[in-house]
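Long-time lurker. I teach an intro course on protein structure, and each term I like to show students one example going from raw sequence to a predicted 3D structure in token notation. This year I'd like something fresh instead of my usual example. Would anyone be willing to generate the tokens for the chain below so I can use it in lecture? Attribution to the forum is fine with me.
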Amino acid sequence: HSEHELASLLHNLDINTHLRMPNVYYNTQEALYTEAMSYRQQFPPPLFYRFPSPEAWTEYRRADEVEYQAIMDRNEAVFYEQYGAHMRAQDEQRAAASASAAASGVSPVFTYGELGMDDSPGDF
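-- Reply from a regular --
Happy to contribute to a lecture. Here you go:
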């Protein structure tokens, strides 16, 4: 196989490993795969750490937490904005229903007597 084919397969394997893609399968009995693995054993890739030091990792975590907190603050502001609009709309609907009921002379609230139940104990 050509050097390009070997490099391409090894590159794809590295990407799939890095992205944790468990459902990508290779025919491990194939000549290209076995040749690529023997090449990888002879010439392992250089180590490239995403975070070269504990300080770099700490800085990444701090920046990530700041970004996350900003996202959550925005989500909370949107929630309360939408919740407030919803509650105002409900209040307006209740006020309109009360005004409509008052104008028509019908009470939107039923009494026990209107429902056939009075307050005297023992009457079931």
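Some talking points for your students: The helical segments are 3-18, 31-42, 54-104. The chain has a mean pLDDT of 86.
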